[in-house]
Fold:
Amino acid sequence: MKTTITAKKMQIPQNFSDHAQERIDKKLGKFFGDDANAKVVISELKNQIVLELTVKYNSMIYRAERSAEDKNAALDDAIDKIIRQIRRNKTKIEKKLKDTAFKQQFADNVPENDDYDVIRHKKFTMRPMTEDEAILQMNMLGHNFFMFTNANTGDVNVVYKRTEGNYAVLEPERA
Structure:
């Protein structure tokens, strides 16, 4: 598994990078093998280490964000969260791991509107998927919503998690 470790506004020692690579390979390597890419971003916020772990494999993105007083504890918590995501969605993920058509790319752009505080623009490639696949991908990313191309209609839809815990889909209406 290829692992990239980045620190924001802090220095990380080489022994932590080596330890993180070893832990990720040992615990997540059995699920993904050598074809996966893992990205670790570490920052410090109010005396807490915030660690984001993102694993991209085939068409799926697995993401966990954890904070702790120690880098190692945050790393272990993030790895455990991804393992729980995989186990919780095991049968659905097994079906999706065979489909490699979806590729997601993000690009940071300069905000265009000065009236609002837009801090980031994201661009990504969408492939057609069902509502169930979109909900699975949203949950794997740990987000509250997910935009996708509906495989049944060809329209751009948004699926989101409601406060009651169930899901809803926003569909465009033709004028």
